[in-house]
Amino acid sequence: MCAENGNGSRDRQRAAYEAAAEMSRRKIERDAPLDAEALKRVEASDIIVVGGQFDHVELVLQALELPFTAVHPDQVEHLRLRPEQLLVVNCPGNVSSGAVPVIRKFVEAGGTLFTTDWALKHVIEPCFPGTIEYNQRATGDEVVRIEVLSREHRFLQGVLEEGDDPLWWLEGSSYPIRVLDPERVQVLITSTELGQKYGEAPVAVTFAHGEGEVLHMISHYYLQRAELRTARHNMAGAGFVADKGVGLSAEKAEYLRALDLKRGEMEAAYSSSRFMANLVAEKKRKS
Question: What is the pLDDT of residues 117-142, one digit of tens each?
């Protein structure tokens, strides 16, 4: 995988996620009060996060102020998972062979599984063969434009709105997603650029298994950098906040200005923050 960015870039991404998470919470409180109430009821036992060397979904959860329980990959086969839980497996997803039946039974019983990047090969393929697979054409370290196929899907509501133009970072050696069963697998987010370069366009997919469901995304969910392609992406991030119609705390607004965060950085962080908030709220409400 590609090397970690410098402290300056990490500070910018952390600030972008903290501001985006606050925006997500405020928009949900305004537009989806039942989801807001569900998020307030989330407990650490509701979300199990399997640590990864490369991705850090837990940082998005922390920015959203959502509690979770962190476990090591070796612990998964010994977990007593419950259907009302959300299981997050960070890239690379190197769980033991004994974890495969545990994860499969968890989803069959109604659990929700969310995985990123290399977990496609290490978790999804052995647990749910015949659904999706790695196409054996690893990506370069680059950023691609994404398109949401169904903005009304429960996980995507409010993620992309009119005028938004987010970009998705592909880590070096990310695994493109090949859909093997198009009748069963729904593509939520796609990228024409990704498809043209690496043969497969899906960025985020979901499918049902038993009473539960699986979601998988290419690359890392915690985006460690953004690319500013256009003049619009280089505009001040405060304009993006204003467009969403929700304010920020004075502290976060000042920090955003001090770092001169750009619209493109805010769009990337907001899209993943809101998606995660939707996912957790939906799971909690169903539980």
Answer: 999 999 999 999 999 999 999 999 88
> pLDDT digit string (tens) for 69-117?
999 999 999 999 999 999 999 999 999 999 999 999 999 999 999 999 9
pTM over the 0.85 mark: yes
Whole-angstrom distance, CA of residue 17 vs CA of residue 11: 10
Residue with tokens 């690359």: 219
Q: Are 158 and 274 in contact (CB under 8 A)?
A: yes
Q: Are 139 and 198 in contact (CB under 8 A)?
A: yes
Could you tell me the domains of the chain? 7-286 (3.40.50.880)
